[in-house]
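User: Can you recover a sequence for this backbone? Please restate the input before giving your answer.

Assistant: Of course. Working from this structure:
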């Protein structure tokens, strides 16, 4: 189930000015570094929790139609399209009436519509492609403070340990986020 973010969030949950205040940095020398670390810290928090914090468009592929398409990223806001390869030609778009999106499940699931089945697909590595929007909020104002604080703690750790090999999130951040992790079953 490879996935990629095709449309990145338009803003970060923590702004540069918030980050600089948190870090107690009052010059502009490290602005580019702070911006990069903010993006990377957000992505690390998202990867750990399997949640997208700000709305992002994602393309995810599958080799076939299993009983249920379990999507990697939560929470599901909307499904843009479900496409499949019935032949070696281009993808065919499945009508939205052909599937049900279970938006409240984490991880989110798509299933064939009631009393229907998924269409047949060719034996191909990326025979099914789902494009969808996932995110806790459309903008930074709707991201809960717990996630913003986790990003700030990761930012602090990485900013202060520049040049060191950082292999995981700080333990206190993991502890903060564990209750919100989406676990795949």
């Amino acid at each position: 189930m490879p996935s990629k973010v095709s449309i990145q969030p338009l803003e970060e949950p923590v702004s540069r000015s918030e980050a600089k205040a948190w870090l107690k940095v009052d010059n502009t020398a490290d602005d580019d570094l702070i911006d990069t670390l903010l993006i990377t810290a957000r992505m690390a928090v998202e990867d750990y929790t399997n949640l997208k914090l700000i709305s992002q468009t994602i393309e995810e592929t599958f080799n076939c139609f299993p009983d249920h398409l379990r999507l990697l990223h939560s929470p599901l806001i909307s499904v843009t399209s479900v496409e499949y390869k019935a032949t070696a030609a281009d993808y065919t778009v499945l009508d939205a009436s052909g599937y049900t999106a279970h938006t409240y499940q984490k991880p989110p699931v798509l299933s064939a519509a009631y009393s229907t089945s998924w269409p047949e697909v060719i034996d191909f590595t990326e025979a099914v492609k789902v494009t969808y929007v996932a995110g806790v909020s459309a903008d930074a104002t709707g991201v809960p403070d717990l996630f913003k604080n986790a990003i700030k703690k990761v930012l602090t750790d990485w900013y202060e340990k520049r040049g060191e090999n950082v292999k995981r999130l700080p333990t206190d951040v993991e502890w903060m986020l564990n209750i919100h992790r989406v676990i795949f079953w």
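That completes the design. Helices lie at 16-23, 31-49, 145-160, 171-177.
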